[in-house]
Design brief:
Layout: E1 3-10, H1 12-16, H2 20-29, E2 33-40, H3 44-50, H4 60-67, E3 72-80, H5 82-90, H6 103-107, E4 116-118, H7 122-132
Antiparallel strand pairs: 1-3, 1-4, 2-3
Length: about 140
């Protein structure tokens, strides 16, 4: 099995609802390690860079407005097959269709305000984590 790192972000709705501890608990209980973590308010520039794959889509502007509307908690998560494990843990994008037991299935009722973001591929994870973090902010175990 491959040890991977992935980018995970608790969105403003998750922070506002006080779900930070619960989400971190689920990540750690799964056996993944958090190797970088910080709370910040994304600038419009960083948000647009993070979601650049959606530029030109009808929901792009509302997505940017939402993720810059309040603080987020950004993380780099490490572990075996971390990208796929995190995607399974968070559930499908539409919280209304996400199964119970997933983060979105348990806490989200929307496509956009769906509590959490996680990179969808190793390539995306590598790009996304360095938008928010510097190499010096990542710890090694």
């Amino acid at each position: 099995m491959a040890i991977q790192r992935t980018y995970v972000m608790i969105k403003p709705d998750g922070v506002k609802r006080g779900l930070i501890g619960e989400i971190i608990r689920r990540i750690e209980n799964k056996g993944l390690r958090i190797v970088a973590l910080k709370m910040l308010r994304l600038s419009r520039e960083k948000a647009e860079e993070l979601y650049s794959v959606h530029r030109g889509k009808p929901f792009f502007e509302s997505l940017i407005e939402f993720v810059t509307s309040g603080p987020v908690v950004a993380m780099i998560v490490e572990g075996e097959e971390a990208v796929n494990v995190m995607r399974t843990l968070i559930g499908p994008t539409d919280g209304r269709k996400a199964p119970p037991g997933t983060i979105r299935g348990d806490f989200a009722l929307s496509v956009q305000e769906n509590i959490i973001h996680a990179a969808d591929s190793v390539k995306s994870a590598e790009r996304e984590m360095w938008i928010v973090f510097s190499k010096e902010e990542v710890v090694s175990y």
